[in-house]
Design brief:
- By secondary structure, this protein is an all-beta fold.
- Strands 5, 6, 8, 9, 10, 13, 16, 17 and 19 form a 9-stranded mixed sheet that branches. Strands 27, 28, 29, 30, 31, 32, 33 and 34 form an 8-stranded antiparallel sheet that branches.
Length: about 700
């Protein structure tokens, strides 16, 4: 069996609609073309391991004049599906082959057929009779069969293709799927059709031996990822010992060459405090570093909410990751809501426990999916929230993936804050330590409502001196503050791209008028000549003592910066110290920070004695003020001399648990991705030691050869 994927190019990106595609030679038994213009039967493969796709040419030559055609896609008797979950199918028709490759891919897909309104589908039982089971109505609810289908492929003349999702009872035998397709009245002729099918099975069919091939693991990146060969469970854990002194750090690098692997990590302390940590994920396209993002370690949670966004053209989307490190299975319920708080999609899925014996290579202990993919099926043109509630504590992570607008295959991955819904919402003003606008810089203020009530208040953008800034989204109606009203369980976004003075930077103060504050963050981006070189997400971070990882290289190719804002209406003093990996002091400084003021600078400017040195270590920031907000900035130049930046999340010293297992919710390595894993001392006066174990999505530990 050959494993590959269906790729649809939209703009300069690749859209993946089906993971693990069977593309081996399939038997097709159909009626002749003229008869099939009215009704027909297409035989699906005699083996089925959960997903399949098949091209058929039996409609070739049929002229489209507004007629409805009916097709039964039938599985052979020995391959009837005994399902344990949802069944998904998608059909597309084309009037011509794909266009030759070009800088914009095959977009806008003019050869795909836009079906007419009224196209429906339903499942067939093992006898070929319609199954009256619940089906998705694509508005978050259910309907009976048959159900209207959802078009899924952007073309220059409308949405094309037809998706359906049905929910047969556990253990029911499914024999196929039926489509009634309303063709357009264009006079064009059909060239080829394609049917995709995916199902959760009780007993997957045994397929022929796999042949080496390639997959693509995201619907953004255009370069192909080599398929990782299954790794058998190991006799003992693959763990890396660590020992971190107070104010020290350990740094482990993994090259990006070789097979693509992904998963999560466990940080298990054996004495002293838990260390803090982060994963620096870099992505290279044709050897050029496109961008970096930082995955912070976290505790397990049972309920999380993230800002969800997918643009209509698919060039920006949201990736959601959930890992279950427990021994038992976890049931995860999800809700996708729009900006008005209306429910658009809901459902649930099961993550197998760590000891449940997943088949090596399967994503069953960890789920990493885009919103358009199974099980979310969020579609396009989405903006709102995704809420995940688990029956057991799990690790959660979310990221925004976006095409840069530059070279084909260049994509930026931006880690997004996950709001822990079990934590009490605060009524305190939330301060985001940094924003920037003008000269190619844009800020998107995102406010996530963690409650079931409408939240109201005001967001104020202040400059480095604590004064008002006047900003606009389009160069008109400049404002220094923006009123917000966020419906329950949703989010609101304010975009500012123009400054009255040409450019501005400073901090953002989000103040509720009555009741809790939202969970705010900003996404800052920088673009030159239409090419975006970085996106960073900056949440509110408030406290009096922080630590974070810092790194710099001689020559300015890699530097660490700080943005620190005063959250108070009076001035105070801030102390900054830098230590190396052994915890030895490298340099320190202090400065006064005026009321509501901000300072933004690189470490080698704040502490001139470290200028020109190669340093990996820990920055400690403390103050005599009741509260400051802090952001770390990792800045570097790539091989094209483009300016890249990523956000380094600071750790509040007193909020890190004393001795508790911590988790990296996501890592990726190989096929262009490269990983750097950092553990550092996060609590004052305490060292940490223990083991770090990296685990694949199927629950098997893996040795990446950490250096």
């Amino acid at each position: 069996m050959r494993h590959a994927e269906v790729r649809r190019r939209v703009g300069s990106r690749t859209k993946v609609f089906l993971l693990c595609l069977l593309s081996s030679l399939l038997l097709v038994a159909v009626l002749n073309s003229s008869a099939l213009a009215q009704t027909g039967v297409v035989s699906l493969p005699g083996y089925f391991d959960g997903s399949s796709q098949q091209e058929f040419f039996d409609l070739s030559g049929v002229t489209m004049n507004g007629q409805t055609i009916s097709i039964d896609f039938i599985l052979p008797v020995g391959a009837r599906l005994e399902t344990v979950g949802a069944v998904w199918a998608e059909i597309v028709l084309q009037t011509a082959p794909h266009n030759p490759p070009n800088p914009n891919g095959d977009f806008p897909y003019s050869q795909y057929v836009v079906f007419g309104e009224g196209t429906t589908a339903y499942l067939l039982d093992e006898n070929g009779t319609r199954l009256d089971v619940p089906m998705a109505d694509w508005q978050g609810g259910l309907t009976t069969a048959p159900a209207l289908t959802l078009p899924v492929i952007h073309t220059d003349h409308g949405l094309a293709g037809a998706d359906m999702v049905a929910f047969p009872p556990h253990g029911m035998k499914v024999g196929g799927v039926h489509y009634d397709i309303v063709l357009p009245n264009t006079g064009e002729s059909i060239y080829v059709g394609r049917i995709s099918l995916k199902a959760d099975l009780a007993n997957p069919s045994q397929a022929p031996p796999a042949e080496p091939s390639n997959i693509i693991s995201s619907n953004i990146i255009s370069s192909e990822y080599p398929l990782a060969q299954p790794i058998q469970p190991l006799d003992g854990p693959v763990a890396t010992d660590f020992a971190v002194s107070d104010l020290g750090a350990t740094v482990h690098a993994v090259g990006g060459a070789g097979l693509y692997l992904s998963g999560y990590g466990r940080i298990e302390p054996d004495k002293g405090a838990s260390p803090s940590g982060l994963v620096v994920l870099g992505y290279r396209n044709s050897g050029v570093l496109v961008g970096e993002t930082i995955v912070q370690d976290s505790s397990l949670i049972t309920a999380g909410r993230v800002h969800a966004e997918v643009t209509a053209d698919g060039r920006l989307t949201t990736h959601v990751v959930i890992a279950n490190p427990n021994l038992e299975d976890a049931t995860v319920n999800f809700e996708l809501r729009d900006q008005q708080g209306n429910l658009s999609r809901s459902g649930y899925f099961t993550l197998r426990g760590h000891s449940a014996g997943c088949n090596p290579g399967n994503a069953c202990n960890q789920l990493a999916r885009f919103l358009e993919q199974d099980p979310f099926w969020g579609g396009r043109d989405v903006q709102g929230t995704m809420t995940l509630v688990s029956s057991l504590p799990v690790a959660m992570f979310a990221a925004r993936w976006s095409a840069t607008g530059g070279n084909p295959g260049d994509v930026l991955v931006t880690a997004l804050p996950v709001v822990d819904l079990s934590a009490a919402a605060t009524q305190e003003t939330q301060v985001i330590p940094h924003f920037m606008v003008g000269n190619g810089r844009k800020t998107e203020l995102v406010m996530v409502n963690p409650t079931g009530a409408t939240l109201q208040g005001v967001a104020r953008f202040v400059d480095i001196y604590g004064g008002n800034t006047y900003l606009s989204s389009d160069g008109s109606n400049y404002q220094s503050s923006f009123q917000y009203s966020i419906p329950p369980n949703s989010s609101q976004k304010v975009i500012v791209a123009k400054a009255l003075t040409g450019s501005e930077f400073g901090s953002v103060r989000v103040t509720p008028t009555d009741g809790p504050a939202p969970a705010p963050f900003v996404i800052q981006s920088y673009a030159q000549a239409g090419v975006t070189t970085f996106d960073i997400a900056v949440p509110a971070s408030m406290g009096a003592a922080f630590r974070m990882y810092a790194e710099q290289q001689p020559g300015g190719q890699l530097r660490t910066g700080l943005a620190i804002s005063n959250n108070n209406n009076f001035s105070g003093t801030v102390w900054v110290s830098l230590s190396d990996r052994e915890g030895s002091l490298v340099g320190s400084t202090s400065f006064s920070l005026q009321a509501y003021g901000q300072i933004v600078d690189y470490l080698d400017s704040l502490i001139p004695t470290v200028s020109g040195q190669a340093v990996q270590g820990v920055v400690r920031i403390t103050t005599d003020l009741p509260s400051i907000s802090v952001l770390g900035l990792r800045a570097r130049r790539n091989e094209r001399q483009q300016f890249l930046m990523s956000a380094i999340p600071p750790v509040q010293e007193e909020q890190l648990p004393q001795s508790q297992e911590r988790f990296f919710p996501y890592w990726m390595n190989g096929a262009g991705f490269e990983t750097q894993i950092v553990l550092f001392s996060g609590r004052a006066g305490q060292s940490a030691s223990g083991t770090l174990t990296l685990i694949r999505a199927d629950g098997t530990p893996v040795d990446l050869g950490l250096q």
